[in-house]
Design goal:
Blueprint lengths: L3 H4 L8 E10 L8 E6 L2 E4 L7 H4 L3 H10 L3 E8 L5 E9 L16
Antiparallel strand pairs: 1-2, 1-5, 2-3, 4-5
């Protein structure tokens, strides 16, 4: 039987970072404008659209485009909520190290 820790062993040395977002769309959602946006648990655009829309964009399509150009890949999207529908999305990208910052791959003894 394979030990549990072996299932998650990273033998390639490739590392990933993750970004999670939660957001709501204004009104009926036709324009895709954010009513609010949370990134990794921090509110970056408040209800009503006030916040850092220059950096994050003011709508779903512009945010996804910016993240894609920065190397982020959408790996999950779901919707949930009782009276309001919230969107939840998870992105990942490979961590880029230069040679001096590269951690050694984790190896486990048998």
């Amino acid at each position: 039987m394979v030990p549990f820790y072996k299932i998650f062993e990273n033998t390639t040395g490739v590392q990933y970072e993750y970004l999670t977002i939660r957001y709501d769309i204004k009104g009926r959602g036709i324009t895709g404008e954010f009513d609010f946006l949370d990134v990794n648990g921090e509110r970056v655009i408040d209800r009503g659209g006030d916040g850092d829309t220059h950096f994050w964009g003011d709508r779903e399509s512009s945010l996804f485009e910016k993240l894609g150009k920065a190397g982020w890949m959408l790996v999950n999207h779901s919707e949930g909520g009782a009276e309001e529908i919230f969107h939840f999305a998870t992105f990942m990208r490979q961590v880029q190290y230069d040679d001096s910052d590269s951690p050694p791959p984790v190896k486990y003894d048998e």
